[in-house]
Design goal:
Membrane topology: Single-pass membrane protein
Number of strands: 41
InterPro entries: Cell_synth_B, Cell_synthase_bac
Number of helices: 10
Keywords: c-di-GMP, Cell inner membrane, Cell membrane, Cellulose biosynthesis, Membrane, Transmembrane, Transmembrane helix
Family: Belongs to the AcsB/BcsB family.
Structural class: alpha+beta
Shape: globular
Helix content: 10-25%
Main location: membrane
Distance between the termini: 93 Å
Strand order of the largest sheet: 34-33-35-38-37-39-40-36
Strand content: 25-35%
Radius of gyration: 31 Å
Amino acid sequence: MASVFLLLSLTGSLLHSSRAQSETIPSPSLPNGQFRERLSFRDLQMDNNLDMGPDSADQTFLVGVSPDKIVTKARLHLFYRLHSSFFQKSGDTLAVDWNGVPLGEIAAVSGGPKEDLGMSLPIPGNLVNTRNILRLRVVRDPKNPCALFGSAPFVTVLRRSSLHLEGRRFDVPPRLSDLPFPFLYPEAAGLRRVPFVLTTSAPHALEAAGIIASWLGVRAPYLPFHFPVTLLPGVLSLPSLPRGHIILLSLDRDLPPGWIPPSARGPFLRILPNPGDPFSRVLLIAGQTPEDLRIAALALSQNRFSGAGDRLSPPNLALSPSRKPDDAPRWQVAGSALRFGFLEAPSSLEVHGTGSVKVHFSLPPDIFTWNHKWIRARIHLRVRTLKRENRSKLDVFLNDRYQESISLPASESGVLEQTVTLPLAVSDLTPFRNKLAFNFNFRNSYPSVISCSMDQNPRLGGAILPDSALDLRPFSRYTILPDLKLFPNGGYPFTRYADLSRTGFVLPETPGPADIALFLHMMATFGAQTGLSGTGVKVSGPKDIAPVQNRNLILLGTYRSNPLLLRLTRSLPHVSKDNLERLKDKNLLLEVLRWKNPPPAHFGPSDLVEEFQRARNPFGVLLETVSPYAPRRVTLSVIGVSQKSLFAMDNILFNPRHFSGIFGDVTVVEPDHLSSFFLPAASFALGSTGPIEETRYWFASHPVAIVSSILLLAAGTGLSLRTVLGEKAQHPPDGPENNKENLPE
């Protein structure tokens, strides 16, 4: 098997895949203080083209702008495709609004071929603030609001549409109390670009950078991040600092004079102007030793700067209490009821007129739903309808998959409340992040064959009350490891202890920018998934892994830079009859576990060899195995072909669109897709469930045991029956012929 993975080290270097062009990068052609920014609709969380028709609900997009920017000019470039139909009315239009102000309309067409068109809509700068709403809504023909067969989509908004912003930046006060602003503004649209600069790559310095990245992830959950890393070993050269807001980790001896006051001894935090960009700031994490950098990062993650000005010398910090397994703040507790009021603000659970209420929730990655088809939801809703609105309904979707429709009551008296219990399909859940959508559709009393406009009367409305809940009581915590599927969906088992006190990273002895960037992105993702900074993480090099070998390990790098990767992949189990039986069991597990319709899987080393022969230039490989250093621990190896391929893997692995392609024991990362494989390897169970359910699950996942049990039962029954019949043959019962002497004369 080692030869399979050695093919990676012989593969040529690859070009860095393109990254979303939503970053605001100062251009030398622009005067100081000015900026230009382009946001695609994908940056606004629109992953697919959007079909709009008369029965479509309004589509809204949040466009945030960082408070240190003033937009003077903005323009919306909208690309769309018209659909013509014999029954299509020409009076319907698609209206585009910005913060409630109409920008323009797209009219339906009654004939002609489909075609892609575009329009440019200017947005006055005085209408752009830090939080903006872009709304797309269908306006029915006021002369003919209802039409026969006229509800088909008449326009498709293409995701290559974009928003262009121009303006100027201004100085922000250097206050630690404003953190994470200006280095991170969670509501800003597009990719969050947070540059890091390090003058040392010692393990404690890397731990400090990882703690800061996880703290940023906690502050901005589920947002796309990019961590450009600049390594400037030795004395800091000011012209080498990148422009923009940056986070700098440096030892005192490497800093210019005046950056550290003479009275400062030990850990130190400060916000300074960026010498190469006067409109940007530097967050300085400094200290006399790498351990001081870690202490300063801990103070930052614990928000010890609320009363400070532009600098802080944190005192000795008390150790945080040790975490318990599976106690992440953002994970819902299995075995209890999950109330919507704890998930969303009450105001976000209401709509006025036709609209949608969305409830986001995160299940524990190891929740055990085997042998369960449904998860029960108790929905307590309140509606305001009119007597003629007797076709109103509530459509329920789980992760964009239809579940059920509820008829809404009509009344002249106004507000009505109703409680219903809905079964939601377990197969439509995802292993971690989930979204419930409640679409309130208010319709009048026209016959159902006629398609009428949704009533936007503000007197009509609905609300999902905060005491509505999901019933998680039937479910326990139990999973089989290793399982790569749990890594992108919750970071499990590395996040089982939310502070990462049981997780260790092994980076190359001299890590490159791509190694550190991938490490920071993982830490930010773990923080976003758990809701807690990874203050207990440990980092080591491949020459001395003693500080981390008893933990769940993540190894990063290439075969050249991290020789421990080669040593571990050489120890992959060989092909044997026993291992092939385990492989068959894993094949069955894919079918019996909770996720329906899994992606195509490959089984066995031969399939993996064929994949490497077919894919001549993969970016790299993910491999998860049982740890060879400690019992009941796993080791995740993230192997890149080169530094450039690690940059590309950083762009792919944390994209939710690719999560479904990561599962099994090995995932090969290629430019256009992911290929996952199951290999014969050791595994272990983590968690617990009821003895009856665990026994049933064990038999279901071991088909050989089922057949063997049936054969043994049949053999035992046959032997018992043979013994009974033999005893009866040797001792026949008393009959008339044996009792002739006792008969009367």
